[in-house]
Design brief:
Blueprint lengths: L1 E2 L26 E2 L5 E3 L5 E3 L6 E7 L4 H9 L1 H9 L4 E7 L7 H8 L3 H13 L1 H9 L3 H9 L2 H11 L2 H6 L5 H8 L2 H16 L8 E4 L2 E2 L6 H12 L1
Helix pairs in contact: 3-4
Length: about 230
């Protein structure tokens, strides 16, 4: 969004027109980089200035409580203080930590970038409620799911966990739900991202943060991450 601020000082009485040698100052437009959101071919989502000095990547599981805590504690400052002005870009990379992560991650990656970020927020804000049905799966449920062909298990697990009802209440119709969870290419990309995280970035848990290509060690929460971002931005 571009904002143009015009000064209207001195409107109480007419002023003489400026001479040809007089210039008037106009505020320069300011770009809000939080409105620049793109999807990458690998299935990731980036918010912010692509040429930002600091590029922050988060590998995160949508079912991870520590990732939810970072979303709640850190993301408001990351977006408003760092991303908005163009100094930092933020990239979300879904990481499959547990079986229930597959459904939400597939649903996120098949949305438009703006909707994807909103859906990520919905999964974190309501993490306990959407995960609750998955914690109540019975031994019979698990046996039934394991007996299905592998390409049907992700969708069946999501249905058993009532994920279809959760996203339908947030504007995703059943046809979209079926298409997203039946996306074999999407499953392959999620697996590839997990492999990359494990091998290239030595991921040992979530969230894992990467700044300008370097994995940050001993940095799994906002209190530890913020001073490192400040240092990188200097």
């Amino acid at each position: 969004m571009l904002l143009v601020v015009l000064s209207l000082a001195g409107c109480d009485k007419p002023k003489p027109a400026p001479s040809p040698t007089t210039t008037t100052a106009t505020a320069m437009p300011t770009q809000d980089w939080t409105q620049t959101i793109v999807a990458t071919p690998e299935g990731r989502f980036r918010m912010g200035n692509p040429d930002a000095k600091v590029k922050l990547v988060e590998y995160a599981s949508l079912s991870c409580p520590h990732c939810r805590e970072f979303f709640e504690q850190g993301m408001p400052t990351v977006t408003s203080t760092y991303v908005k002005g163009g100094r930092l870009s933020y990239e979300f990379r879904p990481y499959i930590l547990f079986g229930p992560d597959f459904g939400p991650s597939l649903l996120v990656r098949c949305q438009t970038p703006e909707v994807a970020f909103n859906l990520i927020g919905a999964f974190y804000t309501n993490q306990k409620s959407w995960l609750d049905p998955f914690t109540k799966l019975t031994a019979d449920d698990q046996k039934r799911l394991q007996a299905l062909p592998e390409d049907q298990q992700i969708k069946a697990l999501a249905e058993t966990g009532k994920l279809d009802a959760f996203v339908r209440a947030r504007g995703i119709p059943r046809a979209k739900f079926d298409a997203c969870l039946g996306d074999k290419a999407g499953v392959d990309k999620l697996a590839a991202m997990r492999d990359e995280a494990n091998t290239k970035y030595q991921l040992t848990g979530t969230p894992t943060f990467v700044v300008n290509g370097t994995t940050l060690t001993d940095t799994s929460n906002w209190a530890a991450l913020q001073p490192k971002l400040e240092t990188a931005l200097q």
